[in-house]
Write a structure and sequence with these properties.
4 helices; 2,3-Dihydroxybiphenyl 1,2-Dioxygenase, domain 1
Length: 161
């Protein structure tokens, strides 16, 4: 590979305290009605499906976050609020930087090839998750690029956020 698999930004991710309040403010600014729904994404070991996993800095982790989306074609905004002290990229970012932009996301084909490419560029894997229908990875790019890069690969025919 000579470059990251895609140059098309699909998502900008924010990490925030008090996600419900943040969604109300965005709804006012962009005239969104109703206010974007906040969902709880809780790790449940009993519900883990085969071939699904989450790793942060090389260790298994349980991701527990509130999440909300705003669709601003051609990209969407994703808002995350960690809801416990579990080490995750979002908890780490929130503790260091407060409410702020955390990552930019790009679709790719060839998930592992893109991970290998980024590693060769000096950007090690920070977080990865396999959901069965999609997989994504964050790279340790914040210091050099000013933002964390995320790649996302979906199984054919899967749509949505």
């Amino acid at each position: 590979m000579e470059k990251l698999g895609s140059g098309t930004i699909i998502k900008i991710g924010f990490v925030v305290h008090h996600i419900e309040t943040v969604m109300e403010e965005y709804a006012k600014i962009f005239g969104i009605n109703p206010v974007p729904k906040v969902e709880m994404h809780l790790f449940d070991e009993k519900e883990q499906k085969p071939n699904t996993w989450q790793k942060f800095r090389g260790k298994d982790c349980a991701v527990n976050v509130k999440v909300a989306f705003i669709d601003l074609e051609p990209i969407f905004l994703e808002f995350l609020e960690p809801i416990d002290e579990t080490p995750t990229p979002w908890r780490e970012h929130l503790e260091k930087h407060g409410n702020s932009v955390c990552f930019m996301s790009f679709y790719v084909n060839g998930f592992q090839q893109n991970i290998d490419f980024m590693d060769k560029q000096g950007y090690p894997l920070l977080f990865s998750q396999e959901k069965g229908y999609e997989r994504y990875a964050y790279f340790d790019t914040l210091e050099n690029l000013g933002i964390t890069l995320e790649i996302k690969e979906r199984n054919e025919g899967v749509t949505g956020h």
